[in-house]
Amino acid sequence: MQTHTFKPDMPPPKQAIGVLAWLRENLFSGLFNSLLTLFALYLLWLIVPPLINWAIINADWVGTTRADCTSEGACWVFIQQRFGQFMYGFYPSELRWRVDLTVILAIVGAAPLFIDAMPRKARYGIAFLVVYPLLAYWLLHGGFLGLDLVPTSQWGGLTLTLVIAAVGIAGALPLGIMLALGRRSDMPAIRVICVTFIEFWRGVPLITVLFMSSVMLPLFLPEGMNFDKLVRALIGVILFQSAYVAEVVRGGLQAIPKGQYEAAAAMGLGYWRMMGLVILPQALKMVIPGIVNTFIALFKDTSLVIIIGLFDLLNSIKQATTDPAWLGMATEGYVFAALVFWIFCFGMSRYSMHLERKLDTGHKR
Amino acid sequence: MSDVNMQPTQPEGIIQMDGVHKWYGQFHVLKDINMNVQQGERIVLCGPSGSGKSTTIRCLNRLEEHQQGRILVDGTELTHDLKQIEAVRREVGMVFQHFNLFPHLTVLQNCTLSPMWVRKTPRREAEEMAMHYLERVRIPEQAHKFPGQLSGGQQQRVAIARALCMQPKIMLFDEPTSALDPEMVKEVLDTMIGLAEDGMTMLCVTHEMGFARTVANRVIFMDRGEIVEEAEPNKFFSNPENERTQLFLSQILH
Amino acid sequence: MQNTANVPRRGGSVLTDPKLRALIFQLLAIAAVVGLGWYLFDNTQTNLEQRGITSGFAFLNNTAGFGIAQHLIDYTQTDSYGRVFFVGLLNTLLVSVIGIVLATIIGFLLGVARLSPNWLVRQLATLYIETFRNIPPLLQILFWYFAVMLSLPGPRQSLGVLDSFYLNSRGLYMPSPGLSETFGLFFAALLLAVVASVFLGRWARKRRETTGQPFPVLVSVLALLLVIPGAAVLIAGNPLVWTVPELSGFNFAGGWVLIPELIALTLALSIYTAAFIAEIVRAGIQSVSHGQTEAAHSLGLPAGKTLRLVIIPQALRVIIPPLTSQYLNLAKNSSLAAGIGYPDMVSLFAGTVLNQTGQAIEVIAITMSVYLAISISISLFMNWYNGRIALIER
């Protein structure tokens, strides 16, 4: 019988911690990996230094006219000079405090909703959702109770972007919830109506919806009944968005186990109480991240109102870049717009991810 | 048909099933089920899986619809009529295999939901009653926790308390211990035994034969959608008549 | 045995019978929808009469009278609005197809990069994704068009590569292939190689299934596809004749040109969509639990086979549905062409034609139906696909 000779023991692994070990493990763990690292470094070297040169080192930061931009890099003077227009559009400058106040009220009012320990959160949230829009309308539009009227044609810039996104989601939520319930109804006619409605709006691009609401809506309504351009766009946005909200909510409804419906029925709750007390509170909580995601999509989509001639943030910037006094500022303008949109969208997507994690580890069976 | 038909022909029972049939599509799940349960009786239904025992008790509060025959619960017939379904559900409490507690509500809120919204009890009163029943299932200290923070056995006891809060005349148990870890089965069974001692009318689908021996007045054995045998527990376990019952018992009792 | 139908019901009334209630509710809902529809229709009729617009699709035969910068089928100003529609539709499809191909390639690469063991590569992929998916696609299109394409040098200072590709503010000029007389032979050789590969594949599978012996199919197929057409080229000469663009006067002539609108649009759309595809790919690969890999390894499958036989089939199941909806999104987003005047269906038809003819209802209805047709066919395909791949479970 053969005897087996054992191989000598392996030496213990070298440095498992420390910078060198980290580098070896994460960047140079093999030939292919090392080549990848070098390639990535080359890419960075190609992009980052010129970008920093253009945006910071060689940029012009102070001045009042185009002539003050003398260096090679970006001309941030342009953004600085037009900042008011980008934020408020043509809102009269002496009344811009009303926009600021609306935003501050939104932040202060919504803040308690983000505090976990807050008691009666749902009730406060609903009250806020009812009271705030009225207040915001009074502040922004005015025309009664002592505030001067500012017609929507003067609204613009980031203000208009926020208004469209906020009104869009606020209108789309209730409609979307009803559509989702309808789509899961036992009644075939209701189901068919809801499915058709949802699939129609989901099937067409927002741009055609905006075309439709700006061109066809006046034809649909009786003579003399007409809305201004912004309201027409908002109607289109709400209908479009509600279909997406409905699909998100439907996902939540489907995720509620059948046992929950049965337990509620066995307790003698009727349809609306079952939905209102047991199913929707769970389903809606579950789909908050999804709703935030559709809101991000909506926020990005607001830029399409450019097509029907509303002056949102993007259109204000686009207009400013065609100003003969500031020719050649397209890059600066669009980079600034991208930065603003990015901050909003990235912030919201982080929040949605945070919620997802929180809900995931939260109390569930 | 005359009015005579509406009167139960057998001695007044709190639950009466006469010739109940049910199909899932082509599949005949319940075949001619006849059952008469008196007030205070404790019935255990057993049988192999898929035998229709769960379906039978789910028909009693119309979580399932029967297609033929009639079911009377506490003098109310279960038909398509919503009012009657609501009336029956008010009188019948149900405990599920998977507890089905509402995870977004605290234990106390779970218990007060139905009294407040269905029976229109004022909040204070509903909460007092809920605490009373939570004490009875011996977990009053968990009242303000969420279901997800409790163990399986505790959750099932909350589910029993929740059903009791409707002050039902009848309790239905659909395999209440099947989803529990072995060490938690006893606490739930003890709660159920306590209920039985207080004279609650109970219908219980379970494989806990010990429970059936000590508590049940009658054991009903079902197989392939039929009631095969029905007897007192002593007779059922010691001297079953039907072959299928004997086979089942030999498998389950080793 | 009694039948429920014969048993008199107690206290049943119209209001508490759920079937009747549901029926009434549904009838009311249908009446409301029909009523609303009729109301809108009636208003529209009145409004159209007052404005003196005749409805109908007769306008499609009228002469368009405007030029289009890019048309894949023959088009002149004297052609009809109907032809404008097809030009626009083809342009939309062109952008969508190129965009989808590019977005898929970039997206898959990024998705895999997100899971790379290399820290730097992972971070770069994350940076890309987080940057581009949080900027509105329209803004990206405008950026590529106004800030990049239009600020490129003019034709005389074009950026050239290999003396055959030229990039300037008028677009990307590249050589166009034409068929030479030997193309037939080359094509026949290619066909032969493909047919041979198919048979080889079948034979190899049969052999593996009957005898268990593997056969290096991939290598042999590649060899077949290279050798046979290659031999044809060597024998008969180049099958394609390339026309190279050349500077004449102030512009280039000859070859193919991609107009700047097309470049800006496809770049922006594929860069934007790729960010989403990357996340889908990453999630799909991660969705296959580590237990599957361990199980496959413990069965003795090597890494490559584990990937091919266990991981990828399961990941694709997760990836394909959201991937299709991203493709659909890209196709819908191609309508943003209106922002830079690329002649797609929306900007040509719902823009120019609508303005010229005033036939709002017909034009919007046609445009929307095209998109609806595309999305309905894709969702039908998805339903079929999901039904086919759904895991059989209790």
Q: Can I get a quick summary?
A:
The complex is a heterotrimer of chains A (365), B (254) and C (394). Chain A has 365 residues and is mainly α.
Largest sheet of chain A: none
Q: What coarse outline of chain B follows from CA principal-axis ratios?
A: globular
Number of H- or I-type helical stretches of chain B: 9
Helicity of chain B, as a percent range: 25-40%
> How many beta-strand runs of chain A?
0
User: What's the overall geometry of chain A?
Assistant: flat
CATH level-1 class of the domain at 156-257 and 286-359 in chain A: Mainly Alpha
The rounded distance between the terminal residues' Cα atoms of chain A is 59 Å
Order of helices and strands of chain B: EEEHEEHEHHHEHEHEEHH
The percent range for helix content of chain A is 55-70%
Topology, element by element:
The complex is a heterotrimer of chains A (365), B (254) and C (394).
Chain A: H1 19-26, H2 31-57, H3 77-88, H4 96-110, H5 121-140, H6 157-183, H7 188-203, H8 206-215, H9 217-220, H10 229-255, H11 258-266, H12 271-301, H13 313-321, H14 330-361
Helix pairs in contact in A: 3-6, 3-13, 4-5, 6-7, 6-10, 6-13, 7-10, 8-10, 10-12, 11-12, 12-14, 13-14
Chain B: E1 15-24, E2 27-37, E3 42-46, H1 53-59, E4 68-73, E5 76-77, H2 82-91, E6 92-95, H3 107-117, H4 123-136, H5 152-164, E7 170-174, H6 182-197, E8 201-205, H7 209-215, E9 218-223, E10 226-231, H8 233-238, H9 243-253
Parallel strand pairs in B: 3-8, 3-9, 6-7, 7-8
Antiparallel strand pairs in B: 1-2, 1-4, 4-5, 9-10
Chain C: H1 18-51, H2 81-114, H3 119-132, H4 137-148, E1 159-161, E2 165-168, E3 171-174, E4 176-179, H5 183-211, H6 217-236, E5 240-243, E6 246-248, E7 251-253, E8 256-258, H7 260-287, H8 290-298, H9 303-333, H10 345-357, H11 360-389
Antiparallel strand pairs in C: 1-2, 2-3, 3-8, 4-5, 6-7
Question: Explain this structure to me?
Answer:
- The complex is a heterotrimer of chains A (365), B (254) and C (394).
- By secondary structure, chain A is mainly alpha-helical.
- Helices cover 68% and strands 0% of the residues of chain A.
- Helix content of chain B is 37%, strand content 24%.
- Chain B has a six-stranded mixed β-sheet, with helices on both faces. In chain B, strands 2-1-4-5 form a four-stranded antiparallel β-sheet, covered by helices on one side.
- In chain B, strand 9 (218-223) and strand 10 form a beta hairpin.
- Chain B is globular, with a radius of gyration of 18 Å.
- Chain B starts with 14 loop residues before the first strand and ends with a helix.
- Chain C is built from eleven helices and eight strands.
- In chain C, helix 5 (183-211) runs antiparallel to helix 6 (217-236) and helix 8 (290-298) runs antiparallel to helix 9 (303-333).
- Chain C starts with 17 loop residues before the first helix and ends in a 5-residue tail after the last helix.
- The relative contact order of chain C is 0.12.
- Classes of the chains: A mainly alpha (365), B alpha/beta (254), C alpha+beta (394).
- At the A-C interface, helix 2, helix 7, helix 8, helix 9 and helix 12 of A face helix 1, helix 3, helix 4, helix 10 and helix 11 of C.
